[in-house]
Amino acid sequence: MVQQDGPAGPVELLSIDQERVTAEWIDGVSRSLQGRISKAEVDRELRELYGALVDGLRAGDEDARGDGFSEVRALLTELSRNRARQGFTPSETAISVLALKQALEPALRNGSAEDTTAYLRLARILDDLALLTIEAYTRTREQIISSQASQLMELSTPVVKLWDGVIAVPLVGTLDSARTQVVMEKLLQALVDTGSEQAIIDITGVPAVDTQVAQHLLKTVVAARLMGAECTISGIRPQIAQTIVALGIEFGDIVTKASLADALQHALRRSGVDLVTRQDGGR
Predict the structure, then answer these.
(1) Which of 104, 116, 132, 120 is nearest to 28 (CA)?
(2) How many whole angstroms separate alpha carbon 275 and alpha carbon 265?
(3) Can you say whether the dihedral through the CA atoms of 253, 256, 262, 263 is positive or negative?
(4) Distance from C-alpha of 183 to C-alpha of 161, rounded to nearest angstrom
(5) How far is the C-alpha of 110 from the C-alpha of 248, rounded, in Å?
(6) What is the pLDDT of residue 103?
């Protein structure tokens, strides 16, 4: 709703002793950030924000979500994104707006009732803008966390070359749909890059195998077969073997081995590599 300023409206309140108010606002925000952002940077951000805030009020708008405050919202969104990327908390981000209320308080000590009313009107706007910073901050943090999760998934799913023509994917942790997609993509790309025809999926580090995990493994094996590669699943521990039997999971003609060493021996034989048996029974 559009409201016109009275004799002592929010615009006039911000215009009285503007330099002092701006300086105290900048000092308050700088102290809260404990020097992790230069005062010159804070000065630039807040002076720009102050000007946009005054322009919005002069347009007769006192709705923080209204058209008159579009520039203010844009500036605060960028500020909030920067604070989120720099590791500040939501409170440290919101203080960039809320500290202006404290900077304005000295002007009310000898002020009129109209000045107090103007302050309260402005305080409501600033509170709404502070909430906006938290919303923008939260969205940015969620994006950062999602990106980091994707990067971590990539790092936790390495494809290693064990021998000429033999690659392996050692899996650690829970295997879900998203991670299976990453495993499948990296495995297929490695098959193309190395020209391998034998692939080993090692699940020694997977804590449990249920029907869903088994389906994910089967899809990965089928995808590799379509690329002309044979897959072996290793790391079938006794507890996992019992679970697979109890659940009635069928791996069909997919080769499974108890250990990565056994799977590697099988893959090497399938690749035509002669394995020499030592007298002590080793390979």
Answers:
(1) 104
(2) 8
(3) positive
(4) 15
(5) 82
(6) 92
pTM (global) more than 0.85: no
Q: Are 201 and 232 in contact (CB under 8 A)?
A: yes
Read off the amino acid at residue 60: G
* Gap between the Cα atoms of 174 and 180, Å rounded: 10
Per-residue tokens: 73: 């919202």
130-183 pLDDT, tens digit per residue, is 999 999 999 999 998 888 777 666 666 788 999 999 999 998 888 777 788 888
Q: Is residue 194 pLDDT above 60, yes or no?
A: yes
Q: Distance between CA atoms of 62 and 67, rounded to whole angstroms?
A: 10
Distance (Å, rounded) from C-alpha 173 to C-alpha 125?
48
